[in-house]
Amino acid sequence: MACIPLVALGLLTGLVASIFIRKTMEVQIRINMEKQCDYILNYYDSLYPGEFTVEKNEDSNGEYTSVKLYKGTYDITTEYDVLDAMKNAFGDDYTIFARAY
User: Fold this and answer.
1) CB within 10 Å: which end of the chain, N or C, has fewer?
2) Does residue 19 surpass a pLDDT of 80?
3) Is 85 helix (H, G, I), strand (E, B) or coil?
4) pTM confidence score
5) What distances in angstroms separate CA 93 from CA 74, 80, 90, one per listed residue?
6) Spatial separation of the C-alpha atoms in residues 85 and 94, rounded to whole Å
7) Which of 20, 26, 100 is nearest to 67 (CA)?
8) pLDDT at residue 96 greater than cutoff 70
9) How many angstroms separate the CA atoms of 74 and 79, rounded?
10) What radius of gyration do the chain's Cα atoms show?
């Protein structure tokens, strides 16, 4: 009977600690990803001046046949150099996407 409270306390402590560690890791991952995204945006700003714009081409049914992403006047739809450099530096995969509607 004396062991039951100790085991229960140990389980409760382990549960609380695991929840706390998980929350802390989620916050740190979010902060790091936000910093990496800010770095990518600043890097694109230094390479290609201007704003991001999306060019959409529609067929006769109103469905999108192609979408192009521009930074200023430069088409960056197939520019993967920046994202590949970031992948090599941080070990994370990146995708740039935009809603086309």
Assistant:
1) N
2) yes
3) helix
4) 0.63
5) 23, 11, 9
6) 10
7) 100
8) no
9) 10
10) 23
